[in-house]
Amino acid sequence: MGSDTQGARRADSAGTADSTGTLDEALERLHACGPEHEGWLSNHAPMAVEALVRHGEARSVHRWIDAYRDKLEDMPSPDSPVTEANWREALGDPRRLADWIDHFTHQIDEHPWQDVLALWWPRLLPGISAGATHPVIRTGHAVRALLTQGGLTTPRRTELAHALGYWAARHSTLPGVTLLPAEATAEAGYDAVPLIADQSGGIRARLARITALPQRPVPAARTTAQEAGSGGTDPDEARADLEEIVRAATRRYATHAHGSPVMLVHAATAPNAVLRILPALPRTLWAAGADAAWAASAAVTAVYSPAEGGPTPSSSPVAPQAAFARAAAHGDEHAIKFADTALDVVARTDGGDPLVTAAMLRATELIEPV
């Protein structure tokens, strides 16, 4: 099973290991609950508490869960077991939520979790936009917790099973779309995304209206090399592209979040989830992950982004970690998760990025506080 130790360290650079045991306590508390509420809205608690603990807010986690309890529902009843013989017909069947979670729990009990992840990654990746991208985001938080020093605990392994089970049960693919030429930068790629004309209804109805998306942005020098027959994208290039995609999406939130402050968070958090997962996967799977991450982010942009961006926020004296503390105090799960992704971007950016910090603050301004 391949993994990238340097990549794991990079993914770990924005936070520290949990020495309090709070994350495992919180996950055990949450695993009696289902991954959704009110039909299909996502249970964000496991993702939010992982971010809070990671960034020094462990003391607030159980109070946060108490405040979130109205959005927690019991695990749904099982239907029939998922097996190696019937998994294809069960894929994308939300009635099988409990069955899928049971299946992955058993698989991770019996095999190394990295092996289970590698087996299912190509199977689940085409459905990355399922559940408004929440399943892949939850998987990213689960993998990051497992990759953290001392992170191989039973609650964290169980959390990965819940995340993968949620993804499998809600698996759905984007409609067939025309692939437009790749832009040379991630910023240009987002600008080139065709916005759907009718931005009404829920995300599933909106995604069905997409007819075209640009391919993953590729630097001009590499495009020239590929046209000359020098070969395709290697794993390190794919990861570098994905880092730029996450950075561009996070920065773009500062000027475009007014289109949909909650939903546009996922344009950054979904590709960042894939970036967190890559170090746990064989390198041969990285490029496909980057392509799918871009497609998911571009799709969210297509269905929620406003046609015009707002003014660039002025620089703020607030430090990035203080901006995360504001998100934690704000309490909304989307503000917390977006700030968490923004701190990853800051950790990968020499000298920081004032617009990334401004985007964190923008989320707490536009999203209604808890």
UniProtKB/TrEMBL annotation:
It comes from the Bacteria. InterPro entries: Questin_oxidase-like (IPR025337). Residues 1-22, 217-237 are annotated as: Disordered. Keywords: Oxidoreductase. This is DUF4243 domain-containing protein. It comes from Streptomyces spirodelae.
